[in-house]
Amino acid sequence: MQFVSVDQLALFISKCFIAVGISKREAQVVAGLMAESDLNGSDGHGVFRLPQYIDRIQSDGINLKPNIRIIEDKGAMAVVDGDNALGHLVMHHATEIAINRAVEHGVSWIGVRHSNHAGPAALYAKMPLKKDMIGIYVAVGSANHLPPWGGTELLLSTNPIAVAIPALEEQPIVLDMATTVAAYGKIKTAAQRGESIPEGWMIDGEGNPLTDPAKSHEGFLLPIGGPKGYGLSLVFGLLAGTLNGAAFGKNVVDFNADSTSFTNTGQFIVALSVESFGNLKLFKKNVDEVIRSMRASPKLPGFDAIRVPGERSFQTKCQREQSGIPIPDELFEVLNTLADNLKIEPLRL
């Protein structure tokens, strides 16, 4: 395992993007978001994805000169066309619009079409926190790994949701979850490291447990809560995909296997002004009390602590700010090969 600082990682990522034709400003925006993903412990959505993004760019699967713009506008509601840009750029732009309009209207819902994979959901749900707003983000996953409940055809994806809620003295509550038991990024990172995956994450076409991530193409992910998770994935896909004129169901392009086709990924971001509902400080104080009551509740045998959503990620961030972001040896070698191919300096430890 190698360790790098968040600044070193962001600088390396931005240099890679600049080397393939992305402007310095846009490269820095995307690199900052990707490095933040690793800092927060979303290892399957940070620098791990860099070679895949570069491959799509070099295969003309990403538009390097996009015109990201609003195409439907109803005040608090709008649809953004990402023009097949890097997903991080599209969602960063859409989230800024949502925040600005929530200042005016109290709430804003911005749908997105013609986007791409944009990293972990929490990145965008947390952005409204800077304005003491609640953030809600949903995306159509960038590849189908889930059949409808009781079926075998892969028509749905992990379709994640993230919700960020501000607190006063405590850290904000940040729920970031897929509608499957595990995100597919965890399957990919396990495969790269040569590790097995737990039973209950995937099954094969015969319904048997699948624990070898290298054989993930032979099976499918399982939804959380059985048919309930399937229902959530379906509804989130309709809201983030179909509603925005983005791909969903059979129209989703597997960006893991196809580097050239436009994915038309759909997402949405909601920014909600707490002040529109009453006293901001009182709300945040009440959130503190809820968090503390959760932690103080009696524990079942075998549990050392009760946590709230986002707590583990915050602890990871604090630890990695001190000791650095861990890069597995296998990934470090892949990144150095990428640097060599792009003729830039390798990632510095």
Structural account:
This protein has two domains: 1-58 and 310-349, Hypothetical Oxidoreductase Yiak, Chain: A, domain 1 (Orthogonal Bundle); 67-180 and 223-278, 2-Layer Sandwich (Ribosomal Protein S8, Chain: A, domain 1), CATH 3.30.1370. It is built from ten helices and eleven strands. It has a seven-stranded mixed beta sheet, sandwiched between helices. The mean pLDDT is 96. Helix 1 (6-19) packs antiparallel against helix 2. The protein has helices at residues 6-19, 24-39, 50-58, 87-105, 122-125, 184-193, 227-240, 280-296, 311-323, 329-342, and strands at 2-4, 69-74, 77-81, 107-115, 133-139, 161-165, 173-177, 202-204, 219-221, 265-273, 325-327. The chain is globular, with a radius of gyration of 20 Å. 46% of the residues are buried. By secondary structure, the chain is of the alpha+beta class.
Write the layout of secondary structure elements.
Blueprint: E1 2-4, H1 6-19, H2 24-39, H3 50-58, E2 69-74, E3 77-81, H4 87-105, E4 107-115, H5 122-125, E5 133-139, E6 161-165, E7 173-177, H6 184-193, E8 202-204, E9 219-221, H7 227-240, E10 265-273, H8 280-296, H9 311-323, E11 325-327, H10 329-342
Parallel strand pairs: 3-4
Antiparallel strand pairs: 1-11, 2-3, 4-10, 5-6, 5-10, 6-7, 8-9
Helix pairs in contact: 1-2
List low-confidence stretches: none
Shape: globular
Q: Quote the CATH topology of the largest domain.
A: Ribosomal Protein S8, Chain: A, domain 1
- The percentage of residues in β strands lies in 15-25%
CATH class of the largest domain: Alpha Beta
Helix-strand pattern = EHHHEEHEHEEEHEEHEHHEH
The helix content is: 25-40%
Q: What's the number of domains?
A: 2
The total of beta strands comes to 11
